[in-house]
Amino acid sequence: MKKIFIFVISLVLYTYSCAQDKSKSDIQYFCKLEVVNKELFPILDSIIRMKSEVAYFKNGPLFTIWFGLDSIKPDLIIIWAEGEKIFGANHDLGLFDYNGNTFFVRGFLDTTIFSKTNLKRKFIFHSSSIEYLANGEPVFDMGIDKRYCVWTCRYHNGRFKLLSFHSFDNNVKSFDYSRQEYPSNLSESNDSIKNN
After folding, report:
1. Are 161 and 151 in contact (CB under 8 A)?
2. CB-based contacts of 145: which residues, under 8 Å, 6+ apart?
3. CA 117 → CA 30, 45, 96, distances in Å?
4. What is the per-residue pLDDT across 1-48, written as a single tens digit (0 to 9) for each?
5. How far apart are the first and last CA of the chain?
6. Between the CA of residue 148 and those of 33, 40, 95, 123, 144, what are the distances in Å?
7. Could you tell me the pTM of the whole model?
8. CB 158 within 8 A of CB 36
9. How far apart are CA 70 and CA 191, in angstroms?
10. Which candidate, 156, 151, 150, places its Cα nearest to that of 182?
11. What does the domain layout of the chain look like in residue ranges?
12. Helices marked H in 20-71 — which ranges?
């Protein structure tokens, strides 16, 4: 699980680095999604509560939910706290709002969890981790790669199970129950990540 976690962090950092040379922002329109499997809400409530304890992400209302990142465990869901900004669109299938937060769904769309609506929502993505002062002077955020707040969850037989939580904030306790949920696939998944 630790190797999956490192792989996902690397993927996000790569996305950030690719976006640095692009324009300052990118306006896109996304399909609004409706959550049809209400079993997701207690998991989201737990995630929002834990996120509120992590210093950097405390007030940020943006999350990404990744489906299908691990071919060995296709029912594994990875949820990232993004904070107050998201840097660059990345395979976004749609978004939904819940409890004052916005969740972007990425990877593949599971129709047993979400359904698309005919509504669209405008969203501005920031394509650079460089901030600008009012006078146009750039301010580089060199610490962005050290901040993370991520959960894994399993969606199996129509039910969700929160498996892990990791954060850069040492004041918030992490946990990882992945081995209990994926006892035989864990070594296969770690080998798969090593080979990529």
Report:
1. no
2. 13, 16
3. 10, 23, 10
4. 666 666 666 555 555 555 444 445 577 888 999 999 999 999 999 999
5. 15
6. 26, 22, 21, 22, 9
7. 0.73
8. no
9. 12
10. 156
11. 2-195
12. 40-51
